[in-house]
Structure formats: structure tokens, C-alpha cells
User: What shape does this take?
Amino acid sequence: MIIVSQKDSRWKWDLIGESYLSIGGWGCLITSLSMLSDWYGEWKTPKWMAKNLSFTTGGCLYWTSLNGKMPFNFVYRYYKRDDSKIKSILYSKDNACVLEVPYGKYKHWVALIGFDSKKGYKIADPIDGKIRYLFDKYSASTGFAEIARK
Assistant: This one.
């Protein structure tokens, strides 16, 4: 899986949809989904996603705009942490998820890529393009979204 940062010079200044928000500052969700697109075999860059998916004027992704444009489809957006559901998604061969985590007074999205019984969730973090364990940097997961192979 390609691991990238939302601050990559190839797209950090590109705007998300019709908003005034840049990928470098606010593109954690599309960067996380970009990394997962590679896992599904068809890499879509954050820059491509910012131009080709649908967003609110405030830069929030319309989840269903993934369907038909990505190598996966949107399944469901969960607004609470549910470890049993997250683990069942993680161990599915066709499904994947992105986790929402607190980031100061904002929310941040990371790609879930594994689990260790001692260290917890293994993530690809679009802030800096590094792989780490969730609790090494973030206090919790406050929600998640599920995607599935077409």
C-alpha cells in the first residue's frame, strides 16, 4: 500500500472541491482513502480525489460520491466507536475502514491497516505519511467509515 502525506508538495496546495480548503490543511480523509485505493489496486491521488469527488462548500466529502469513481464503494458512516465492528471490517478480505480521531478541537481521519493485540490499531496517518499505532498519538477513535470492494 502506498503511504502518503496530505502535505506532499504534489497536492498540498490543491483545493478540496469548490471550497477554499487545501488538501495540506484539511485533506486527511481523502488522503486516507487515497492510500486505501492503492490497497484495492487502483491508486487515486488525493489531488485526483479533490477534483473528481463531490464535497460540500465547506469541504466535507459526500460519501456516496465514492461509488462508481473509486475501486471501492461507501458502505456506512458510524458516529461512535465500535471495536467489534471495526475488527470485523479489518479482517474482511473485501472491506476496509478509515477511523475518525480527535485532533485538538477538530476531527482527523486515518487509514486503518492492521491490529496488534498489545499495541492496538495500526494506522497510516496522512498528517505526516507515517505508519504508527493509534494510541501512540491519538487518545481514541470517535467514529469510522466502512468501504467495500466493488
Observations:
- The first strand starts at residue 72 and ends at 78.
- The mean pLDDT is 97.
- The chain has five helices and six strands.
- The beta strands are 72-78, 95-103, 106-116, 120-125, 130-133, 143-149.
